[in-house]
Amino acid sequence: MEAQARGLLETEPLQGRDEDTVASADFPSMLSEEEKEELKAELVQLEDEITTLRQVLSAKERHLVEIKQKLGMNLMNELKQNFSRSWHDVQTTTAYKKTHETLSHAGQKATAAFSNVGTAISKKFGDMSYSIRHSISMPAMRRK
């Protein structure tokens, strides 16, 4: 009896075989006419309450929109604020800070490397220019 009573008080959701058992049960034949009437009345009451709650929620949503309009708040402003807040949240994370630090360091190294390559290329062009000028001027000097 205790196992059966405990089964009625369980708060866990139904599992696969439990759902099959419930689906195959013939509840209407298990209920008395009085119980059926009580359940029908409860069903009508719940449907009425749900309708009322939907109406209240709809009225509150309209009121919310009116207040936002009076305050000059619109969807675009809210999106901007949400984006700004989210971006700030991302920037304050440890992962972002570490990534930013690493990429910044890598950028500095790349800049230094490009600078060195540029300097080397400039030097090579300078050397080539000197060599070309020198080779052009040498025959001219020999003719004299």
Low-confidence runs: none
Roughly what fraction of the amino acids lie in strands?
Answer: under 5%
- Percent in helix: over 70%
Summarize the main sheet.
Answer: none
Layout of secondary structure:
Blueprint: H1 2-9, H2 16-24, H3 27-30, H4 33-70, H5 75-91, H6 94-143
Write a structural description.
Helices cover 88% and strands 0% of the residues. The mean pLDDT is 79. With 144 residues, it is an all-alpha fold. The protein folds into two domains: 8-76, no CATH class; 84-144.
In summary, what is this structure?
It is built from 6 helices and no strands. The protein is an all-alpha fold. The longest helix is centred in the C-terminal third of the chain and has 50 residues, at 94-143.
Labels describing this entry:
single chain, 144 residues, mainly alpha, elongated
